[in-house]
Amino acid sequence: EANATIDEKLKRSQLMAAAAQLRNGVLGVNGAWSEQFVEVGPELYNLYAITLSNLELRYHAAIVAEEGLRAIAPRIGKEATANPWKKAGAWTASGKQVQSLLKNAQNFASQLASRAKGSGVGALQSDVIELGKRISPDDMGQSADETLVLNALQDREWERAIQLAKDFLKKYPTAQPKAYAWIVVAYSNWYDDAKKANDEAKAKKIAGDLTQAAAAMETEAKAELAKTPAPSPERAKDWMRVLATVQTAKLSVLSA
Questions:
Q1: For residues 33-53, b (16+ Cβ closer than 10 Å) or e, as one string?
Q2: Per-state percent for the chain, helix, strand, coil, to nearest 5
Q3: Is the pLDDT score of 230 beyond 80?
Q4: How far is CA 247 from the centre of its chain?
Q5: Would you say residue 8 has pLDDT above 80?
Q6: What are the angstrom distances between the C-alpha of 4 and each of 53, 104, 207, 237?
Q7: Which of 64-68, 111-115, 138-142, 241-245 has the lowest mean pLDDT?
Q8: Which of 1, 5, 85, 191 could cross-link to 206 by cystine, CB 3.0-4.6 Å?
Q9: Residue pLDDT, tens place only, 81-111
């Protein structure tokens, strides 16, 4: 009804009423037996989050969607046959609501991140991605893995960002230029933070790790650029950026 009316005040009132009813439904289904949650839980969470989004309550929508994923994830076992939302490898009707909730959760978290910055927003977005990997790995693509690294960099979690970038490289071995750039940026900022904190021992250790990593990156970049046939112009530019980033980082460390 809310979507059918052109009266904005009436529309908002109807959406608020719907949100209240859906909230009660979500609270009720979480206390229900397992079969009932499997049947209607994902749809209730999905509709509740969508309604909050339509009310422009973006943070609330993202939180509710995340809570829905958090309620779903523990109900899925590690074995392929231990997913109550799949039969013979295919998503059931209720399972399609799980997929829809996962997609909406990513969208709501991404929209929120584009409007508000901070560790809380980044952590929420990262949590949605991690839950999505547990629930439906096939629905989580390279962009989700990139977001995890970028959030760690934004939150200044340098050591975690480096590890995530290395994990990213193992999963996407042709993405060296992108992963290497993240690693160098993380090491450089981590080194700067250690210097500002007057932790010379830590700074020295980070500088040594950065120098070692940078040397390996330079060697690989130069080898790739010298290959016959030559890499594509786009790929060559990527490797040149790696070399430039590495040189800047090395100069920064040497001049500190």
A1: eeeebbbbbbbbbbbbbbbbb
A2: 80, 0, 20
A3: yes
A4: 29
A5: no
A6: 17, 22, 62, 52
A7: 111-115
A8: 191
A9: 689 999 988 999 999 999 999 989 988 888 8
What pLDDT is recorded for position 254? Answer: 63
* SS3 per-residue string spanning 138-168: HHCCHHHHHHHHHHHHHCCCHHHHHHHHHHH
Residue 162's identity, in one-letter code, is I
65-83 pLDDT, tens digit each: 999 999 999 999 877 568 9
Residues in Cβ contact with 56 at an 8 Å cutoff, skipping those fewer than 6 apart: none
Per-residue pLDDT tens over the stretch 178-219: 999 999 999 999 999 999 999 999 999 999 999 999 999 999
Beta bridge partners of 205: none
Percentage of residues of the chain with pLDDT beyond 70: 93
What one-letter code names the amino acid at 230? A
DSSP string, 110-144: HHHHHH--SHHHHHHHHHHHHHHHHH-GGG--HHH
Q: How far is CA 110 from the centre of its chain?
A: 9
Residues with Cβ < 8 Å from 48, sequence gap 6 or more? 19, 22, 23, 25, 26, 64, 68
The residue behind tokens 């981590």 is 190
List, in order, residues 6 or more apart from 93 with CB less than 8 Å away.
none
> Helix 119-135 vs helix 93-115: angle between axes, to the nearest 10 degrees?
160
User: Which residue is it, tokens 């070692």?
Assistant: 212
86: enclosing H helix or E strand: strand 86-87
ω into 74 cis (within 30 of 0): no
| Separation of alpha carbons 159 and 153, rounded Å | 9
